[in-house]
Amino acid sequence: MKNLIAVALLFIGLSSFAQDKYTLSGYVKDASNGESLIGATVLIKELKTGNVTNFYGFYSITMVPGKYTVTFSYVGYESKEIAVDLSANKRLDLEMELESEQLQEVVITGHAENANVSEMEMSTNELDIKTINKIPAFLGEVDVIKSLQLLPGVTTVGEGASGFNVRGGSVGQNLVLLDEAPVYNSSHMFGFFSVFNPDAVKDVKLYKGGTPAEYGGRLSSILDVRMKEGNNKRYEVNGGVGTIFSRMAVEGPIVKDKASFILAGRRSYIDVLARPFLKNNDLDGVGLYFYDLTFKSNYNINPKNRIYLSGYIGRDDFNFDERQGFDWGNKTVTFRWNHLYSDKIFSNTTLFLSNYDYSFQVGEDDDDEFRWKSRILTYDLKEQFTYFINTRNELSFGGEAILYRFIPANVYGASDGEGRDFSLEERKSLEYAAYVGNEQKVTDAFTVEYGARLSGFSYLGDGTVYYYQEGEPGKRKPLTGMSQAGNFENIKTYYNLEPRASMKYEFDESMSVKASYQKMTQYIHLVSNTAATLPTDVWTPSTNNLKPQIGHQVALGVFKNFFNNQFETSVEGYYKRNKNQVDYIDGAELYINSFLEGDLLSGRGRAYGLEFFVKKPAGRWNGWISYTLGRTELQVDGVNSNKWYPTRYDQTHNMKLTAAYDVSKRLSISSNFTYITGTPTTLPSYRFEIQGITIPGVEGRNNSRIPDYHRLDVSANLKMRSYKPNGKKKKLEDYWVFTVYNLYARENPFAIYFGQGQERLDNGALAGTSAYQTAILGTMVPAVSYNFKF
Amino acid sequence: MITLRNILVLILAGLGILACEKKIDVDLEESEAMLVVDAWLTNQFMEQEITLAFTRHYFDESQAPEVLGADVIVVNIDQGDTLLFEDLDGDGSYTWDAPGAGKTLGSLGDNFLLSIDFEGVHYEAMADLSGSPSIDSITFEYEPKDAFINEDYYYGEFWARDLEGVGDTYWIKSWKNGVYLNQPNEMNLAYDAAFSRDGADAFDALFFIQPIRTAMNPFDEKDGEFLPPYSKTDTAYVEIHSLSEEAWFFLMRVMEETNVSGGFGALFATPLANVPTNISSSNPEVGVVGFFNVADVTSKEEIVTDATIRDNNPE
Questions:
Q1: Is there a contact between B58 and A686 if contact means CB atoms under 8 Å apart?
Q2: Whole-angstrom Cα distance, residue B290 to residue A777?
Q3: Of A160, A695, A771, which has the smallest distance from its Cβ to B257's Cβ?
Q4: In chain A, what are the domains?
Q5: Quick one: CATH architecture of B35-129?
């Protein structure tokens, strides 16, 4: 680690130490509510250089003394020009006002108007909550994850499937962070709604490639969801009554301009509505509901110190009756401390705890029952530093340590009064990383970012350690031995050095070329062999048998804006290679299986694609078109005759069009259209009968495709009058959202399956064999919601 | 866990109003026909049958092409007894007449070799004969009509205790009024007293757990209404067939591949894949499918009468 820093410092060069320099630094905030602005541009006109505010709204620029004109800009806000006479270090905190002439809210998050061209990042997409709010949503419920699926390179296996796939990666290869704490299951109601309450979300950023060295731990993407800090000027209540959820968020100052909070909750109410209909019959014990509660508070102790505390609790509950049911949910608590060691050194310390658990119980009485609980606990300490060395170098470094506790199954079963416990052992592991990265402006046009992350993972006792030998490919591995490990005894350690590099060359203000390389390592694995991931899917650590997944990605992109940044366009190509991807033997037992590792296969993955993106960020007409041409394949010994085969989420063409039009100050309409090549499926080719049962036979895996998917959604957003009849402005701002999902009611197939149906055959009769197509949402789904703010 | 998956499907069935399903036409590839060996023998004192056929196109609903002229023998290795299976009717059904021979295949613990010679290729498989527990009783629980079933009904339950020792596997077959419950979702398998090898030592020698005991109930629909699984005077018949562990895994896989459901169940589907076989072929180029198992069979028959009804609703 020390060597890394030394090398990095060497790169930065010594020229910058030649002359006395001073630092201009501070925080940029929204004047209306005190929320820090992420990614606002701070430009020094005379030097044609500047800085972008970080996740906490902080910037720092170090220059020779002199008189400068500093421009602060952020799309949707009035740009501000401030003359600065820099003769000493200067703190300049700024509050920016929303642009007044806007018809509606800003559509696409902006930063600087040409940020897509001028910023270092590539392969990232950012959505702010105002954009997400505008996208027509299923049942009118604004959804962070569904919105992401409208961006290039992001896909899903279909409706109702939880999570998302990035550039050909699996759902379990995404790290979903809510205020830096991992969320292991990002869905309510299987995959129909995501767990993030839009009232509490401020900013959503997805890294598909070119990932900075500070992030790691998953192969495909990092989804960084940042919560609002809460209005520190005045109290505000947001809420809504939707088809599925009712929502309410309260935010306000604790100490004006110094401390604020936000508390937001949602609860579904199908069960409440259904209760009268279920009374007086056997279904009155049936409960089906989900809720989430999000909290965040921050305190500006002094100009150098600020602390944040945020938390999330979400739960889905399905009860058949008092004794039987199924529930799952995440809980996270994050404590953060921003500290300025100097005007140039910003630090953030994060401490979090994340818990994901589910439980399942059946059995009508104590004599015959089955109870199962599973849990994964994560404790993390993260330290991040940014050293704003000079206008040409921004150094980041830090480290992280994560302790995982996997409790896969606490199980109790009873048969006719005889009870037995057959819980699986807890598994512990420690993941740790240190990183350093530098963003260096080599010339005004050419910027590079380079760095490395050294990650390690220790699989720890106590518990039984299993040893397997490689058996016949694709078959259950034979167990060769077992041993016992002591508490926290190191069973197996892995280290990986993950280099990261990006470069940008700016031809002019409207055009740039960017390239990146990354190596990522993933030490914990989501074990799932179903079409969609389930809340019960188990996360499992790398062990002496299961190696960490390793992925390499290169990406190249061209970014060009037209008509004074009115149109932004980009084309990006990527190529990925992975190893040690997890696959499964046929008939793998993934639940409550101490010999799970024997049922797992390891394979190679490759994915490549081209992503096209055109967007019109502002104006009465706004929106974007995203198109991805892609391929993602796996090669696993023992599957598909050892040949490469497309994954379940391989989609050749994936096109999304999102458009919004502001009809008047009160009415806006929007729509999105999706067209996706049908996903791969496995078709049978022959049949035979064993003991009267008709069995399908197959040749190959994912040897065909289901029909293509397309869908059109529309929505209208109608603001109620904001003035009273006497001309005074009302305190209440309210609006209605009308949505129609799947307007032309296409029965989009989720899957094709084959079978004889569920009919009882006469003795000796042969079963008929047919193909069936299943649509999860095969109909038009209209919805309405009422939303308010005061 | 089969039960968990089924329950997830059940939960989502509530949303089924939005899902839809239709029969479609799909072009499937032709593939070369392979030998199918359907060799599930029992230790019962009755004719034993091994059926040989060829695989055929998936959508071919006609009778499977029969395999004629094969030499089929079963050897009881422990007793040194070779039993010839003959295709007397020329229809691919090779039989051995136990009553005619005055004996059954063998005794508990015996090992058997199946040997087939056909068109210059030799096929063979091994199986051992393990025991099945006897069925203590079959009882019926009274249930008043409910949201699903429009009249009072009886819910059958068979009582048997898994044999001592970890790793006993069984196929439980049920008949109602002489009709064999052969729907794909009616297959009932047990690993010791429960479902899977993990936790098997915990469930060794217990009564079969609840969902296994009551899987003998048919849930038939008529005009969109569920019929009572059992009514008074109905007859229930249950057989327990012992399996080799390999055969149990084979049937688990058969269940996964055949008990498929549409709607929201599609979310939890695993990719279609081939079921295993324990038949090996002397020529690796020549494929073979099917399975060989020799079962010990226990059984019990009971009629729904006041003597067998347990009243669960005293009020």
A1: yes
A2: 38
A3: A695
A4: 2-104 (2.60.40.1120), 124-757+774-789 (2.40.170.20)
A5: Sandwich (2.60)
